[in-house]
Write a structure and sequence with these properties.
Elements (H helix, E strand, L loop, with lengths): L1 H28 L13 H10 L6 H13 L14 H36 L4 H15 L2 H15 L13 H31 L2 H8 L4 H13 L1 H15 L3 H6 L5 H10 L3 H29 L1 H9 L1
Helix pairs in contact: 1-13, 4-5, 4-7, 4-10, 4-12, 4-13, 5-7, 6-7, 7-9, 7-10, 8-9, 10-13, 12-13, 13-14
Length: about 300
C-alpha cells in the first residue's frame, strides 16, 4: 500500500504544476485586467498600482515569482481585497465549503445506498419504479430550482428553517443548503447501487448462499454489499471533490461565504491570485480524495490489491 500511495503522490506533483501553469497563463491571456473598471484610474496612479503587484514585469518573471511563493504556501495578495491576503480568504471560505460538503456527502450515502438496495431487491416492481423516478428527478432538476423551492416551502411558507446565511455553521442554517446540495448525489449513488446489487445478486456465490437457507437480509449484509459498493466507492472521489469544494449556485442562493462564491467573485473581478488559489486547492483536493478512494479500495478488495502488486 505504501508503494501505491507514493506512486499516486509522485504522479500528482506534475499534474498540480500543470494545473497551476495553465491557469496562470490562461488568466493572463483573457482580455482585461484586475484593475480595469468603468472609471479609469489616472495614469500615474495606475502605474503605481501595477508596479505594487509586480504586474509590470515580463510574464515569465511573474510566473517564476508566483511559483516560488506557492511552493512556500503563499498565494499572494488579493487584487480586489487589498487589506486581505488570498491565504486569509481561503482560510475563511474553505471550512465553510468543507463543512457543507461533508454533511451533504454523508446524507447522500445514508439515503442513496439503502434506496438503491431497496430498488434492486424489488427489481421490476413498483418500489423499483418509484425509487428510480425519484432518482431521475433528483438528477434532472437543477439545484438552482430546488434551492428556491425549498426556501419557499420550508422557510417562507412553513417557517421551519431560516432562508440562508452562515451564522457560524448553526444547524438550522445548514439544513437547507445540505439538502439541496446532496439531492443529485443521492440520485447518482442510488442508481449506481441498484445496478451493482442487481449484477452481484446474479452471481453464483449469492445463489449458493441463498440455497444454504440464509435470509435475503443475511445474504445482502454478509455477501452482496461489499462487492456491490465498489462502483459507489469509485464514484466517491470526484463526488467528494464536487461537494466539498462548494457549489457556486448553492452558496449564492443561501448566502454562504464558501470557496465557490470566492471563485465567482475572483473570476468576475479578474482577481488572478484568488482564482489560481481556488483552482489549485480544487486540484489538490481531487488528488487527496482520489488517493483515499484508492487506499480504501486497496484495503477492502483483495483482488484489486493483487492486481496492483502484479502490475
Amino acid at each position: 500500500m505504501i508503494t501505491l500511495v507514493v506512486k499516486r503522490l509522485l504522479l500528482a506533483l506534475p499534474v498540480l504544476w500543470l494545473i497551476l501553469t495553465l491557469t496562470f497563463f490562461l488568466l493572463r491571456a483573457a482580455p482585461g485586467g484586475p484593475f480595469d473598471s468603468e472609471r479609469s484610474l489616472a495614469p500615474e496612479i495606475e502605474a503605481q498600482v501595477v508596479a505594487k503587484y509586480r504586474l509590470d514585469l515580463p510574464l515569465y518573471l511573474q510566473y517564476g515569482q508566483y511559483l516560488g511563493q506557492v511552493l512556500v504556501g503563499d498565494f499572494g495578495p488579493s487584487y480586489q481585497y487589498p487589506d486581505v491576503s488570498v491565504n486569509q480568504l481561503l482560510a475563511s471560505g474553505l471550512p465553510v465549503s468543507l463543512t457543507l460538503g461533508f454533511w451533504a456527502l454523508l446524507l447522500a450515502l445514508t439515503i442513496g445506498i439503502p434506496l438503491g438496495v431497496w430498488a434492486a431487491l424489488h427489481q421490476g416492481q413498483w418500489q423499483d419504479t418509484t425509487a428510480m423516478v425519484v432518482a431521475v428527478g433528483g438528477i434532472s432538476v437543477p439545484n438552482y430550482v430546488v434551492g428556491p423551492m425549498l426556501i419557499a416551502w420550508l422557510a417562507v411558507t412553513w417557517r421551519w428553517l431560516p432562508a440562508g446565511g452562515w451564522q457560524g455553521g448553526e444547524w438550522d442554517h445548514l439544513l437547507l443548503p445540505i439538502m439541496t446540495l446532496a439531492l443529485p448525489f443521492i440520485a447518482y449513488i442510488a442508481r449506481l447501487m441498484r445496478v451493482a446489487v442487481i449484477d452481484v445478486w446474479q452471481q453464483p456465490f449469492i445463489q449458493v448462499a441463498l440455497a444454504k437457507g440464509l435470509s435475503i437480509k443475511q445474504v445482502m449484509i454478509r455477501h452482496a454489499l461489499r462487492p456491490a459498493f465498489l462502483p459507489v466507492l469509485s464514484y466517491l472521489g470526484p463526488a467528494a471533490v464536487a461537494l466539498m469544494t462548494g457549489s457556486v449556485v448553492i452558496e449564492q442562493i443561501f448566502g454562504l461565504p464558501g470557496l465557490g462564491r470566492y471563485f465567482v467573485q475572483g473570476a468576475l473581478n479578474r482577481d488572478y491570485t484568488l482564482v489560481m488559489a481556488v483552482v489549485l486547492w480544487v486540484g489538490l483536493l481531487t488528488v487527496i480524495f482520489n488517493l483515499l478512494v484508492d487506499v480504501f479500495s486497496f484495503l477492502l478488495y483483495p483482488k484489486l490489491r493483487t492486481q496492483e502488486e502484479t502490475s
